Amino acid sequence: MDLKKEALKYHAKHNGKIGTAVLTPIKTKEDLTLAYTPGVAEVSRVLAENPEAAYEYSIKAHTVGVITDGSAVLGLGNIGPLGALPVMEGKCAIFKSFADIDAFPICLTTQDPEEIIKAVRQIYPVFGGINLEDIAAPKCFDIENALQDLGIPVMHDDQHGTAVVALAGLINAAKVAGKEMSNLKVVISGAGAAGNAIAKLLNGLVGDIIIVDSKGIISKDRKDLDKYKQELLEFINRENKSGNTKDALKGADVLIGVSAPNILTAEDIKLMNEKSIIFAMANPVPEIMPEEAKKGGAYIVGTGRSDFPNQLNNSLAFPGIFKGALESRAKKITKEMKLAAAYALANLVKDPTPDKIIPGPFDEGVVEAVSQSVKSAI
After folding, report:
1. Are 311 and 305 in contact, with CB atoms under 8 Å apart?
2. Per DSSP, what are the bridge partners of residue 195?
3. Which 3 state secondary structure label does DSSP give 360?
4. CA dihedral defined by 344, 178, 270, 287, rounded to 10 degrees?
């Protein structure tokens, strides 16, 4: 298949992937009276007096704003708001297709964190939730943290959706490999949005975590760490190892890659313990291809791609997480909700194998299982 040709054809068919639908058809004069003036004024008065009524009488109950500045789009980098638009549309299409959530892409022309925060604060009343997307680290941390007081769930999916899926896969991978989660030595390649969130979600569940950024192992000896990497040192790299990726991999059980394409070889994987677990999640080209990882002795390999076994993709997590949060009118997405979502995903695979540690996005019951687990964790 000529991917470029077919993708352009697919997107040109309807000038994009999403549109709007009228849930209450306007076919008569009476319909118009109720949908618009004068009847709508009665509903407006109710919402003005009681903001919570918006969940009953407006789209707020089932609508998510998907917001980006286009600064860190997939594997494409900083391509700006229009470059990001097809990706945000795709995100919205997944919300609707899998969770029946109405989502709308909002691609901002500013990449200033304070301006992004201000913009979200100005538009949030329309939405029941905010999905931040493809915003570069470290500003994505500041933006997400600053918006936690809106009274609706705000989640940067590149962080937390990725972390939930990685944990879900790791739960079953450890089981298949015969390794105890609490003893796992985990190396995370990449200290951006996803790497940071994965480390925090794994904290307390695994033996130790070493994170490698573009300059090497994050350790207490480094003098070039931003505040977010310094915070990670409170619980990672307990032996304060220094060096490069090869040094980190010696004696490791797990490698989780959320960094860059083709940075690892079979020789690197040979440095790890037996029955090593490799999650090479860089998209569209992983840190190491599955065949190469297997040559190095990898027992279980997952990637972000659909053309290999064990696709570790955010689409398994975010529709159900937001569905559960919206239906329960949660004010925030908590760590307990994310942990519950990860275990729900893992439990959907009744008999995991090296080639099946995670459900597929089209497997029956994924969104419902995640949403119910999220609601139970509130």
Report:
1. yes
2. none
3. coil
4. -10
Q: Which domains does the chain have, with CATH numbers?
A: 3-152 (3.40.50.10380), 157-378 (3.40.50.720)
**Own/partner pairs, 359-368, CB within 8 angstroms, 24+ separation:** 359/316, 360/311, 361/98, 361/311, 361/313, 361/315, 361/316, 366/98, 366/316, 366/320, 367/98, 367/99, 367/319, 367/320, 367/323, 368/320
Residues near 17 by beta carbon (within 8 Å), at least 6 away in sequence: 11, 86, 89, 90, 92, 93
User: Is the CB of residue 154 less than 8 Å from the CB of residue 132?
Assistant: yes
Structure tokens at 41: 């004024």
* The two structure tokens encoding residue 274: 């037996």
CB 175 within 8 A of CB 110: no
**Enzyme catalytic residues:** 36, 91
Alpha-carbon distance of 348 to 359, in angstroms, equals 7
- Report the predicted TM-score, pTM, of the whole model to 2 decimal places: 0.96
Tell me the one-letter amino acid at 220.
K
Sign of CA dihedral 343, 348, 353, 355: negative
Tens digit of pLDDT at every position of the chain (378 positions): 899 999 999 999 999 999 999 999 999 999 999 999 999 999 999 999 999 999 999 999 999 999 999 999 988 999 999 999 999 999 999 999 999 999 999 999 999 999 999 999 999 999 999 999 999 999 999 999 999 999 999 999 999 999 999 999 999 999 999 999 999 999 999 999 999 999 999 999 999 999 999 999 999 999 999 999 999 999 999 999 999 999 999 999 999 999 999 999 999 999 999 999 999 999 889 999 999 999 999 999 999 999 999 999 999 999 999 999 999 999 999 999 999 999 999 999 999 999 999 999 999 999 999 999 999 998
Of 281, 233, 237, nearest in space to 255 by CA: 281
